[in-house]
């Protein structure tokens, strides 16, 4: 496609000379800045403009300012024409966005060479942008595929727990919703603003269902026991944390290559039974040495367990559950997270009540 060049000069002689020299391009001309802007408004897809700075009606600087202000004109490259003693004007024009300058009286051969160079550069830039757009589209497609694969894998793993009647699908849905509500609230606080980015919150919510994935390795006689566990059985049950971490790390040969969401899932599975005072398991971590995903999951998991009916206990009501959460601040739970949890407790309780009602209806039918 032939490039389009706009020549803007109040000298009809200069316009004629330059037009003749550029016979193989698509040429349009204007005798002043105002006419130039009218032409550009009608056709903003001009490749290059040769612009005289000294014109009686809307000078070249005003034209450059107008082009700079309008994003639709950003593709126009401008070569300014100045007199030999106008060094300050050359600098000013370049600062306003011109890509080059040539002095009058015109050196036609030099002007032709510069025009050809800038048009080739623009063509190369256009091709690079097109290549980048294609690459971005490919990356976006691959990213969508990876996210879909990740989500399918997570759902499949969690499905193993649901098939064994370890957890209900409602537990998975509730804990994900609560994780999102809690993280979004904490994100507003200065202490978490830089940590809980939108991307990280999405990882936390997505990997929340994997917190108990290690329970697939626990024998049914313990996992499904309709009564409280003995000390020996509880010792075996606690191994689900280690099993979960091992399952998530199984195909990773170099820990430096662990994908971010897998790292988050490992932290959730491996540390959600740690306690803030150091009395939890499996490592007896305390305070902020417990990874943030584990500290978040600890309060969410305990809350949902208390609010839910189990084979060995009835469901707690919301008041009793919130009282327990409050009492365990600084003991089982991170006090800062407890504070955030209590600030959005009404929204969290609403999530629980919605799904409890659904479960009751399911049982009725």
Automatic annotation (TrEMBL):
<dbReference type="InterPro" id="IPR037522">
    <property type="entry name" value="HD_GYP_dom"/>
</dbReference>
<dbReference type="Pfam" id="PF00072">
    <property type="entry name" value="Response_reg"/>
</dbReference>
<dbReference type="InterPro" id="IPR001789">
    <property type="entry name" value="Sig_transdc_resp-reg_receiver"/>
</dbReference>
<feature type="domain" description="HD-GYP">
    <location>
        <begin position="146"/>
        <end position="357"/>
    </location>
</feature>
<dbReference type="InterPro" id="IPR052020">
    <property type="entry name" value="Cyclic_di-GMP/3'3'-cGAMP_PDE"/>
</dbReference>
<dbReference type="Pfam" id="PF13487">
    <property type="entry name" value="HD_5"/>
</dbReference>
<dbReference type="GO" id="GO:0000160">
    <property type="term" value="P:phosphorelay signal transduction system"/>
</dbReference>
<dbReference type="InterPro" id="IPR003607">
    <property type="entry name" value="HD/PDEase_dom"/>
</dbReference>
<feature type="modified residue" description="4-aspartylphosphate">
    <location>
        <position position="52"/>
    </location>
</feature>
<dbReference type="InterPro" id="IPR011006">
    <property type="entry name" value="CheY-like_superfamily"/>
</dbReference>
<keyword id="KW-0597">Phosphoprotein</keyword>
<protein>
    <submittedName>
        <fullName>Two-component system response regulator</fullName>
    </submittedName>
</protein>
<feature type="domain" description="Response regulatory">
    <location>
        <begin position="4"/>
        <end position="119"/>
    </location>
</feature>
């Amino acid at each position: 496609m032939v490039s389009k060049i706009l020549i803007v000069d109040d000298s009809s002689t200069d316009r004629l000379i330059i037009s003749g020299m550029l016979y193989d391009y698509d040429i349009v001309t204007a005798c002043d800045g105002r006419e130039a802007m009218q032409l550009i408004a009608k056709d903003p897809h001009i490749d290059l403009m040769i612009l005289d700075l000294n014109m009686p009606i809307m000078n070249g600087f005003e034209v450059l300012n107008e082009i700079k202000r309008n994003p639709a004109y950003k593709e126009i490259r401008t070569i300014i024409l100045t007199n030999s003693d106008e060094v300050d004007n050359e600098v000013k024009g370049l600062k306003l966005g011109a890509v080059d300058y040539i002095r009058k009286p015109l050196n036609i051969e030099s002007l032709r060479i510069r025009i050809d160079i800038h048009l080739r550069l623009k063509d190369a830039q256009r091709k690079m942008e097109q290549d980048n757009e294609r690459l971005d589209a490919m990356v976006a497609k691959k990213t969508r595929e990876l996210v879909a694969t990740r989500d399918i894998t997570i759902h499949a793993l969690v499905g193993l727990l649901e098939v064994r009647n370890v957890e209900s699908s409602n537990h998975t849905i509730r804990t994900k919703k609560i994780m999102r509500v809690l993280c979004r609230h904490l994100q507003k606080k200065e202490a978490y603003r830089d940590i809980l980015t939108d991307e990280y919150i999405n990882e936390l919510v997505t990997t929340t269902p994997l917190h108990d994935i290690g329970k697939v390795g626990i024998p049914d006689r313990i996992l499904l026991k309709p009564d409280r566990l003995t000390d020996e059985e509880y010792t075996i049950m606690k191994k689900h944390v280690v099993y979960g971490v091992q399952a998530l790390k199984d195909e990773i040969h170099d820990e430096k290559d662990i994908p971010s969401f897998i790292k988050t899932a490992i932290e959730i599975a491996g540390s959600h039974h740690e306690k803030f005072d150091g009395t939890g398991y499996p490592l007896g971590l305390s305070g902020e040495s417990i990874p943030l995903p584990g500290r978040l999951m600890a309060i969410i998991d305990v809350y949902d367990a208390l609010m839910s009916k189990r084979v060995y206990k009835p469901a707690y009501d919301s008041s009793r559950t919130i009282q327990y959460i409050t009492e365990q601040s600084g003991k089982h739970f991170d006090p800062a997270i407890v504070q955030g949890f209590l600030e959005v407790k009404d929204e969290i309780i609403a999530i629980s009540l919605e799904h409890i009602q659904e479960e009751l209806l399911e049982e009725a039918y």
